[in-house]
Write a structure and sequence with these properties.
Elements (H helix, E strand, L loop, with lengths): L1 E5 L3 H12 L3 E5 L3 H8 L10 H10 L3 E4 L2 H5 L4 E4 L15 H13 L4 E5 L7 H12 L5 E5 L9 H6 L4 E4 L3 H10 L1 H5 L4 E4 L1 H32 L3 H9 L20 H14 L5 H24 L8 E5 L15 H10 L3 E5 L4 H7 L4 E2 L3 H5 L4 E4 L4 H4 L3 H7 L4 E4 L6 H7 L3 E3 L7 E2 L2
Parallel strand pairs: 1-2, 1-4, 2-3, 4-5, 5-6, 7-8, 9-10, 9-12, 10-11, 12-13, 13-14
Antiparallel strand pairs: 14-15
Length: about 450
């Protein structure tokens, strides 16, 4: 199959590379010439483990190419995927469909034969029908179908998610379109991975419902963690006990500083807005959004409390600023709440992150970037563990503590334990869901 992938952001690039590894001929298109030139040079504009190797393999095999010319890429394509951004629209929480509709208009002008136009971007219910109307209006003679194919990729594990998915959702209306989509996902059909065919609206809703539910699990366990701190319960034991229930499961039950990233914040806001527009308020989702914001602010309070009520004049080493490990994505990261708040309260903040500096330098003005956790902690008054990168999971805590001015740690990912910290020489330790803080002489 010949595939045109419109958009080389996270979803478009990962999907395009993986489709080419399925054996399809894929052209990834982007209007940003710098991005295309970067890809043509064999470099990646994003960080995703293993993507560079897969890209090089399929470029060498002649199945994967990059171009800035949409018309050329669409010409003769069996499927055209729209994988452009749908950021939150300012002022009302809606998903901004400007790029989606612009792509649809350009695709309409470029179609030369039958093709399935597939929306890979996360879009509100009704968008695919709007895409269909837009294309038909721009090119009444166009021979096409539309399909909805939402993505369920976890940053940092996207290739495995694409190649071994929990499910693939395909919203189609005609057998002709279904046949094309089946052929595109043939490698997964042959290995018996679930591929669910639905109508367009159900496919669109599945994406929002799934992300809102996962955001709800995260927010719920974070609320329970706050209650554990007051009652003396241990959130790790509570999470384990809940997760052993097959009806609940253990995923997304890890207490922390709140959810972030490119999906959950944007999609929960969009779902809440969709509910308002249709007169069916999404009260659970609206509460999740509110509570998640409160959780982030509570993380700032934890650090301030650890410093006896004031961080003014203190040096704070922050380990990890991306919203999760194994990605360079800073979108809606908890660090964007925590770090500016500490700086605003008078702290000097040093930051270490294996991949976060590229985006973080613009997003976190006023911080001092360092390459090494031990260097960042030297003479510092506190260490804040904010992202659970592997290199922060196995720190020499004794070395860390002895180099600090004040051996204090705010472990906002529960990587370590009270006993580990005290044995290493930390005099103050705060974590999530066990106690607000623990001190000893």
């Amino acid at each position: 199959m010949k595939i045109a992938m419109i958009g080389t952001g996270y979803v478009g690039l990962v999907s395009g590379v993986c489709f080419s590894d399925f054996g399809h001929d894929v052209v990834c298109v982007d209007k940003n010439p710098d991005r295309i030139n970067t890809l043509l040079a064999g470099e990646l504009p994003i960080y995703e483990p293993g993507l560079d190797v897969l890209l090089a393999k399929n470029v060498a095999a002649g199945r994967l190419s990059f171009d800035g010319d949409l018309k050329k890429a669409v010409d003769g394509a069996d499927a055209v995927f729209i994988a452009v951004g749908t950021p939150t629209r300012r002022g009302d929480g809606h998903a901004d469909l400007t790029y989606v509709m612009a792509a649809a208009e350009e695709i309409a002008e470029a179609l030369t034969g039958y093709a399935v136009v597939v929306t890979k971007s996360t879009v509100p219910v009704g968008t695919n029908r709007a895409v269909q109307t837009t294309i038909a209006k721009a090119n009444p003679a166009a021979d096409f179908d539309v399909a909805s194919n939402p993505e369920f990729l976890r940053e940092g594990a996207a290739i495995d998610d694409f190649m071994r998915p929990d499910r693939v959702v395909v919203g189609v209306e005609t057998e002709r379109a279904h046949k094309v989509m089946r052929e595109i996902y043939r490698p997964l059909y042959l290995r018996d991975f679930p591929v669910q065919a639905t109508d367009l609206e159900s496919a669109e809703m599945i994406k929002y419902a799934a992300n809102a539910f996962l955001a709800t699990k995260i927010t719920f366990i974070n609320e329970i963690a706050a209650l554990c701190e007051r009652t003396g319960a241990d959130i790790k034991m509570v999470s384990q006990g809940m997760g052993l229930d097959g009806r609940i499961g253990n995923k997304f039950l890890h207490a922390g500083p709140g959810y972030g990233g490119s999906c959950f914040p944007k999609d929960t806001r969009a779902l809440a807005r969709i509910g308002q527009d249709y007169g069916v308020p999404m009260q659970v989702t609206e509460t999740v959004i509110k509570v998640n914001d409160e959780i982030r602010r509570r993380m700032v309070d934890k650090v301030v409390d650890l410093m006896n009520g004031s961080v003014a004049g203190k040096t704070i080493a922050v380990l990890g600023v991306t919203f999760k490990p194994n990605t360079d994505d800073m979108r809606e990261a908890p660090s964007l709440t925590v770090v500016p708040a500490l700086i605003g309260a008078g702290a000097h903040v040093r930051v270490v992150d294996p991949q976060g500096r590229h985006e973080g330098e613009a997003l976190l003005p006023g911080v001092e970037w360092m390459d090494d956790a031990y260097e960042a902690a030297e003479t510092a008054d506190a260490v804040v563990l904010l992202t659970e990168w592997n290199e922060f999971r196995a720190l020499n805590l004794n070395r860390l503590a002895t180099s600090m001015r004040t051996a204090a740690m705010a472990d906002l990912r529960n990587i370590y334990s009270f006993d580990e910290a005290t044995e290493a020489g930390f005099s103050k330790y705060a974590c999530i869901g066990r106690r607000d803080s623990q001190e000893w002489s």
